[in-house]
Amino acid sequence: MDLKQYEKIEGEFITLKTVTPDDAQDIYNWRTSASGNFLNQPKNYSVESQQQWIKIRPASEINFIIYSKEKQPRKKGMISIVDIDEQNKKAEVGRLLLDAKYLNESNPYGLEALKITYGLVLNSWQFNKIHGTILSLNTGMIKLQKFLGMEEEGIQRKHLLINNEYTDLHLFCVFAPGFNKTYLPRINFLLKSFVTK
After folding, report:
1. Fold of the domain spanning 3-192
2. Whether 63 contacts 102, CB under 8 Å
3. What is the pLDDT of residues 20-60, one digit of tens each?
4. Which one, of 53, 60, 117, lies nearest residue 85 by Cα?
5. H or E stretch including 170?
């Protein structure tokens, strides 16, 4: 699969553009802010290590920066599609990370990023399944994904060491029929509140 054709994807509220090494400073800022509390932080993390990480991404994933659709588009966060498995028709959507200023502010950026990436995998690519993981600390995201229609496949107990504490990892998935029947209508319902009349 040629992922280069997806260097830019337009949505209603956002534009997704593939990550470049020039985005390293922004990603570093997001990961070291309150937004990074729900991510597994690497040791000796720096802008330089983030830049190197971007340069060595495998062909089986695509990483996007989320831009607002304004007269002067601004970077709002990132999201990734990883472990793209064409043979078994499945992929993982993760690394959803927003600028910390939007953590306590209602906004469409993360929602539409989920909608676009899930739609790309399950409808455009016609894959069977999207799977992903959420830390037990991230109760808001767990509630959101359950509301939208993701199924919880299991829990990996005390699986990651986050802030010096072992943390559970929740395993979620959604299949193509469930995405179109439940997930997509519900996320569209939430996004309606951001449409300006």
Report:
1. Aminopeptidase (3.40.630)
2. no
3. 999 999 999 999 998 888 887 788 899 999 999 999 999 89
4. 60
5. strand 165-175
